Amino acid sequence: MGATPFGKALGGNGRDRARRGQGQLEAQVLAALHHAPGPATAAWVQERLGGDLAYTTVMTILSRLHAKGAVTRERAGRAYAWTPAADEAGLAALRMRRVLDGEPDRDAVLTSFVSALSAHDEEVLRSLLARAEDDGRAPGADPGAGRSDASDEARGG
Length: 157
Known about the structure:
Elements (H helix, E strand, L loop, with lengths): L5 H4 L4 H4 L4 H13 L7 H7 L6 H13 L3 E6 L2 E6 L3 H14 L4 H10 L3 H16 L14 H6 L3
Antiparallel strand pairs: 1-2
Helix pairs in contact: 3-5, 4-5
């Protein structure tokens, strides 16, 4: 209603949007939800994306985001009202954790990641780890870290 649809705001014409990948669609749906005045229905999101996506496509994207923990939902009559589960930084952190969780050698991935950080990012990370330690949490605590090989055997590893 006078506002620029998020599909157009994020680039492309109707034909380009028809070829968007799942990740781009998810990003556009999340952007729309972040700009919503409160919990939003799939129809509201569809309208904000320019209306060229089928309602069922928007529902599929929202359901996938819900399964990933990126959005929450609550009943609003016969429909659901959707809300982002976190701010954009929190969602980026969720994606980073999922990538890390999918890798067999977490230590190697983290080593590679840290070695590629800028000096500023490294300082921010050191500060955050120190703060976590001061708060009584072990920095980077992983429930599986430091366990013996017996725990791997118990998991079938």
